[in-house]
Amino acid sequence: TAAPIRIKAVHVVNAPPIMSSIFNLVNPLLPKKIRDRVFIHSRNGGWQNLHASIPADIVPKKYGGKICDEKLISCLENVEELEKKFLKTFAFGSIKNQHKRKSMKVIC
Q1: How far, rounded to the nearest angstrom, does the alpha carbon of residue 35 sit from its chain's CA centroid?
Q2: How much is the average pLDDT of 10-37?
Q3: From CA 93, how far away is CA 37, in angstroms rounded?
Q4: CATH, domain range 7-76
Q5: DSSP state of 68
Q6: Closest CA relative to residue 30, chosen from 15, 43, 40, 44
Q7: Where do the CATH 3.40.525.10 domains begin and end in the chain?
């Protein structure tokens, strides 16, 4: 099934150095659109490369950003609650009418 989202970029954080090497080998074989959207940030590369794409204001402290863990936990709790509401709203099927038609005539 298709998801109604558009992925602008994929950032792989804390990637082992071997992953960067493998990606560099495979990169020329990928379509340009994907090459422009996939970024590998290795452990020893520092966070400057990551912060060039994503502002430090929205990155957790453990990745060199400014957001503390408490804010992340409350954000995740809100996302879980919204997910429940979303799934309930967009559940498959239809709501059955509570009342039945009194006759089979077409009402004009």
Answers
A1: 19
A2: 90
A3: 36
A4: 3.40.525.10
A5: -
A6: 40
A7: 7-76
